[in-house]
Amino acid sequence: MNEQSALLPPVDVVEDESGITLYADLPGVPKDKLSVQADAETLIIDGEMALEMPKDLEATHVEVNLPRYRRVFSLSKELDPNKLSAELKHGVLKLRIQKAERAKPRRIEVTG
Amino acid sequence: MELSLFPRDFVAELDRLHRQVQRAFEISPSIRGFARGGFPALNVASTPQSVEIYAFAPGLEPKSIDVQLERGVLSIAGERMPAVPGERATVHVNERFAGHFHRVITLSDDLDPNEVRAAYREGVLHVSIKRLQSAQPRRVNVS
Fold it and tell me: Which of A34, B6, B10, B114 has a CA that sits 20 to 30 A from residue B33's CA?
């Protein structure tokens, strides 16, 4: 499958002093069908649904029309792709990316 | 100072546009007001023996979901709590649904209200309702 044939999952992105937390809605995706890849520049979330379906199923109303989610983000330099943790619960991915030590905010004393 | 670490760049804008266009061209077969794009998204399918409803409702406590079937109308309701950011946090993107939801869907009238199963797995609520025995197709012998 190519990139066009995937759903774009909604996300929330929150930043604090030590890093970024990303929440993505990926209903129907089990852990083993989820892929999270990060390098210095890009974060790629890719997940495939695995729904239990009985035989002889005939769709009558379809709002989710693709069995796959994919979303790509560009990462900025201060984030450390090696310090990434991911947790998947009830179809919500919680991703935490730490900032590199040198990028954490420092309070600068003003003298005068 | 760069405020956004995930800037709404050109590609993201294209993605958003793509989603809007996708929505605009879908036709809703449902007579009830709740249009597409509501939460949770619903897929409905049927077999000769049952009707299967899939509600894409991630991030809920299974016990908090209220599922009711009354005279062929299925209603799914609940609440999804927003993620609460810390005191000194900045929200850059906020696309996920938060708050109360209630979706109603009209099903066929040959369903058995005593034969309903609901399971919540990986953020998908799957409701399976059997058709009434009397409504099942039967082979008629010709003598």
Answer: B114
**Assigned fold of A7-51+66-102:** Immunoglobulin-like (2.60.40)
Q: What is the pTM of this model?
A: 0.78
Q: Nearest by CB to A23, from B52, B96, B120: name it.
A: B96
User: H or E segment at B14?
Assistant: helix B10-24
* Listed residue (A92, A75, B1, B85) closest to A84, CA to CA: A75
Task: Using an 8 Å CB-CB cutoff, list chain B residues near A29.
Answer: 122
Average model confidence (pLDDT) across chain B: 81
Q: Do A94 and A16 contact (CB within 8 A), yes or no?
A: no
Decide if A14 contacts B92 (C-beta within 8 A): yes
**Complex ipTM value:** 0.85
